[in-house]
Amino acid sequence: MKGLKILSQELSAFKLGNKLAIKVALAETGQYAKKAFVDDIFKRYNFSSRDRASSAIKLSIRKNHVSVSAKHKTINAYSYVKSPVHRASKNKRTPGKRVMAGYNVSYLRGKITYRPAFFKFIGRNGNVLLGERPEGNKTRGIPRTAIGPSIAGAFGVIKDQTTPSIMKFLNKSYLDALK
Fold first, then answer.
1. I want to staple 89 with a disulfide (CB 3.0 to 4.6 A). Which of 9, 52, 79, 97 is the partner?
2. How far apart are CA 132 and CA 105, in angstroms?
3. Which pLDDT tens digit goes with each residue over 34-61?
C-alpha cells in the first residue's frame, strides 16, 4: 500500500509539472506565433511598416488555448502606389504632351503591376483616394475606390504556411519546460 501511495504522489507531481510545462510552452509559443505571423505578412505584402501588421494582430492566451486573430481593416490602394505612368497625348491639339496613363502599384513585395484604370482624386473627407474607372465608363460621379490587402486577408493567406514552424516551436518549448 505504501508503494501505491508513493506512486500516486509521483503521478500527481508529474501532472502538476505537465500543467506548468503546458502553460509555459503556450505563453512562449503565443509570442512566437504573433512574431512569426507579422514577419511573414511583412515579407509577402508591401505594408509600409511591421507596426501596422503587429497592431492589427491580436494574441489571446487562456487556460490551455492560444488564439491569434487579425482585425479586418481595408487600406486605401494609394498607399501601395509606386509611380505614376505617363504616355504621349493622342489629342490633335496637343500632340506629344505627357498625360496620365495610370499607376504602377505594388501590393505584393517585389511585384509591381500596371493599372491603367487608376486615377487619383480627393475624397469627401479631404483624403487622397485612388479611383478605378473601367474602360468605356464615362460617368463623372464618385468612382469605386480601389483598396489594398487587409491584414486579416493577408493573415488568412499566410497562416497555413507559418503553422508548421509554430508547431515545431511549441513541441520544443514544451520539452524544454519539462526538463
1. 97
2. 13
3. 889 889 888 888 777 788 888 888 888 7
SS (H, E, C) the chain: CHHHHHHHHHHHHHHHHHHHHHHHHHHHHHHHHHHHHHHHHHHHECCCCHHHHHHHEEEEEECCEEEEEECCCCEEHHHHEEEEEEEECCCCCCCCCEEEEEEEEEEECCEEEEECCEEEEECCCCCEEEEECCCCCCCCCCCEECEECCHHHHHHHHHHHHHHHHHHHHHHHHHHHHC
CB burial of residue 26 (10 Å; 0-12, 13-18, 19+): buried
**What residue type is 110 in one-letter code?**
G
Dist CA 84 CA 101 (whole Å): 8
Contact between 106 and 112 (Cβ < 8 Å): yes
- The answer to whether 85 and 75 are in contact (CB under 8 A) is no
pLDDT of 10 strictly over 80? no
Write down the pTM of the prediction.
0.71
103 with 115: CB under 8 angstroms? yes
Cell 493573415 belongs to residue: 155
The dihedral region occupied by 106, where left means phi > 0, alpha psi between -120 and 50, and beta the remainder, is: beta
Torsion of CA 142, 128, 48, 144, to 10 degrees: 0
